[in-house]
Each structure stands twice: as structure tokens, then as C-alpha cells.
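Task: sequence in, structure out. Protein: Serotransferrin.
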Amino acid sequence: DSSCTRSVIKTLLLHINLSFTPVTMTTPNFSWCVLSEAEEQKCLDLAGNATARNVRGSLLCVRGLNTRDCMEKIKNGTADAASMFADDIYAAGLCYGLELAAGESHNAVDGISYYVVAMARRSSSDLSLLEMHERSSCHPGIRTTVGWTVPIGYLVNTSQISIGEQCNFPKAVGNFFGYSCVPGVKDPLHDPRGNNPKNLCEACIGDENDRHICANNHKERHYGEAGALRCVAENLGDVAFVKHTTVFDNLDGKNQESWALDLELEDLKLLCPDGTEAGLDEYLRCHLSAVPANGVVVRMEDKCRVWKYLERLQNAFGNATEGFSLFSSAGYGQSDLLFSDATHHLQRVLGSYTSWLGPSYTAILQAFEDPRLKYIFPSLCITRIVLTLLMPAFFFWFVHISRCELLF
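Result:
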């Protein structure tokens, strides 16, 4: 039948036309969580320059209140990515189920940012990192990676410090060391009840007028890594926990303060985790931990998508000698915006966030988790709200503990 044949032909032609209907490609959006006005401005400049260079994808800049807020925004989809420090990467993975799309390389070889070392005066012949009880210590600040997380995690993991059921780290540290300088340890933010041990401030000196003792800023002259080094140099502490670069950043006239001008490399040594000691240039074998560089935190399903966009941005602006530069914060009034200024290039992270952090640094961070929760909820982040609402009777005895809150 000819009419039937014509109908079949029309149907076939219709399918052919549908098969070749052009598909409209939408430009994918990528939203970046920023934490300051300066960082937001650099993000907006990056977005504008990327559009001008026809980099595929549209960058949006989302303002976060703090790092934890950025984690929540990424998890709920109101942001796609943010650059974070190693400690925050761990918290983002543990508490929010987030992953890494990329990490920074500072030396063009690996993802190591710096090494945390224990520095002492060479004249202190009877010092050992395995026997620090009742010794005096100098820390750049409370809850800093260099001055708190790494050294205290090391002491916990080597069973020199026992935290106890209350998970009171300052109390345990105060009971362990004879006296210390931990700037900020008595600040209301870190000591809301005023119970943190006073001996954690006894090696602090405040300013020239004996004010601001133990302050969490430069008014305390033993604040920061240079301050911790000064604390040891002036014989007010036995050991300083600093970056491997700290001493070199303060010698040869780079620091004009009298204590630094009088300091010589030969005056100092490194204390190694195995109880031995080493020269200042032997930090590769004698350090408490290698601290990973910053990474780009994303949702698990966006690892590939975000990396592809970052790769396009890096190809366009990563090695720029003029115009916008991805790894420079010059002109914005702050440093390390979006990425560390020391970044050589971004490298793709194919594995999990723990593969980027590495086993030794992950073990350091795990020392700050409440051990009781590991046995009951090995893969969950328990907040006091969840415990109060869901299990008030059975778990009331540890309702004040939060595996994740210990990290923030």
C-alpha cells in the first residue's frame, strides 16, 4: 500500500531529523568558597580573566563565614570547591564526607609544604624527645599545626601524654611540661571556663611593658615561629616546635632584633623522634611530621569535573609573567589568596584525602579524636546534638564529646 509506505518514510525521516538535531551545550558553572574581601576580589578577577581568555566554564565566587562554613556549603551544594590547609582537609573528609580534587606542589616534586621540627640549644646535652616530661617548651600558638597539632599529637602517639576521659588536651599538656609558652592558651576562645593551666604561659614574656603576656598575637614576643625560636634562644625554653625554615628565616640579618642578631646556626640542633639529635640541615630525616600542602576540597562526585576546570585555569594563568597570575596575591593586600603564593603548580589527587595527607600526618591528627567514639562509631562524626537527641540515656556519659568538634 502506497499510503503505508509514505507513512513509514515520513516516520523514518522524522527520526533522522531528530537524530541530527543540534544539542545546545551549556557552560558549566564552578563556585568557589572564599573567606575574605581580598580573596573574593582575586576570585572575581580570575573569573573575568578566564572569560576573556575563553576558558570553558564560568567561575562564581561564594563568600563563606569561615572554613567550617565553606565545608557545609560544599557539602550542601551551594559551593563546589575551596582551598584548605591540611588540618581542615582532614576535618572536611572526616566530618563532611568531602574529598580532594587537587593539591599544591611547592617544590615541583611532591605535595609537602614544610616539616615540623623540634629545635633546641646545642648546649642542652641531656635533651631527648622521648624524655620531655617536666621540660620546658615553646610553641608558636594554641591550635596551630606547628605549635600544637603536630607536637602534641606526637606526644600522645608515643604515649608520653595521656589525655584521659575528659579529652582535656591543655590540662594534659600542662601536667606534662614543667612550664611552657603557648600563646592564646588562656584566651576565652580557647579557655572559656578559665581552667587551662597557668604554667602553659610561664615561659611567655608579653611586650616591653610586661603586658599582653601569653596573648595570641605579636604583642606577646614569644608568639609565632620566630617568637618560639626566640624563647629557646633566650634560654626560657628547652625546645621550640617550629618549621624547618624558621631558623634560616631569622638569621643572616633577616631579623634585626637583638636576639636574632646574636644567634648562630652552631648554637642550635634538632631533636629527632627516635631520641637522637641532628644538625639543622638534616630535617628530611629528623622531623616530627611532614605537613602536606593545601588542597582543593570538593564533593566526591565532582573530583574529576573540578580538576578539569582547574587544569584549564592553570594552563592559562599558572605560569603567567604578566597580567593575572593564579599563584600570586600581589596587589590584593594579603597573601596566599585562593592558593598559596609558594605554589609551583597544582597536581591532581586521584586517591582519597588521606592519601594526600599521608599516613604519618593522618596518625598525628587521629590523636585528637576521642578514642571512645572510634570503637562505637568508627566511620561517623558524632555531634553532641545527635547524641542528645537520639541516644540520651545510653550515651549520656560522653555527650559532651564530639569527634569532629575536637578538630575545630
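The CA atoms of residues 179 and 199 lie 5 Å apart.
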